[in-house]
TrEMBL record:
GO terms for molecular function: isomerase activity. This is glucose-6-phosphate isomerase. Pathway: Carbohydrate degradation; glycolysis; D-glyceraldehyde 3-phosphate and glycerone phosphate from D-glucose: step 2/4. Gene3D superfamilies: Jelly Rolls.
């Protein structure tokens, strides 16, 4: 009898679907993202109930040293000419980093230091993104399908959204078949 062997949770690499464990899903809709997109009029014209992204998190780990595992499914779309993106945050515990892995779709990971220096990394299936301490992060879907990304972060990290009330230093807009990066 192998009564000591437990079946772990599973991630389907092609889709990012998590299974085999208690899962908490949080859906962020257009109405939840006031002031996030550059074109406020376009945001108001959109369907407030439209889902922009879903985040599935495995279990409810707690305490110093525990890790959270979650998958963000960022849908395709735009507000005006700006691509759908996550709200973006610093960790409340600024010294805590995180790792993102691209699973499906194409997009960008926007990273920004506390000094306001911003850079972008390409997210594709298989890409690995090490988010350093003291660095805000946001996903942007520049593709034509859902962008799914697996993330692992310390449960104590917490989220600080307020520190980015003025927005990130870079924005990404549609341009022909591709994208264009603008400052401010
Ligand atoms: C956790 C983390 C991700 C994001 C998710 C949604 O630290 O970085 O799981 O929480 O991509 O983005 P936000 O939290 O910015 O709405
Ligand atoms: Zn984070």
């Amino acid at each position: 009898m192998n009564s000591d062997i437990f079946l772990p949770s599973q991630v389907a690499w092609a889709t990012g679907a998590l299974a085999g464990g208690p899962l908490i899903r949080k859906t962020t809709r257009l109405t939840d993202l006031p002031g996030i997109f550059a074109d406020g009029e376009a945001w108001r014209r959109g369907n407030p109930q439209q889902s922009v992204y879903d985040v599935d998190v495995l279990g409810s780990p707690a305490g110093e040293g525990a890790l959270c595992v979650g998958v963000t499914h960022l849908h395709t779309g735009n507000v005006g000419d700006e691509f759908f993106m996550t709200r973006g945050h610093f960790h409340a515990r600024r010294e805590q980093g995180e790792v993102y892995f691209g699973l499906r779709g194409v997009g960008l990971l926007l990273l920004q230091t506390e000094a306001g220096d911003a850079r972008l990394e390409e997210v594709t299936a298989g890409s690995v993104h090490i988010i350093p301490p003291f660095t805000a992060h946001r996903l942007i879907n520049t593709g034509k399908e859902t962008l799914s990304s697996l993330a692992v972060w310390p449960v104590i990290a917490g989220h600080d959204y307020a520190a980015l009330a003025e927005g990130f230093a870079l924005r990404v807009f549609t341009s022909g078949q591709g994208f264009e990066v603008r400052h401010g």
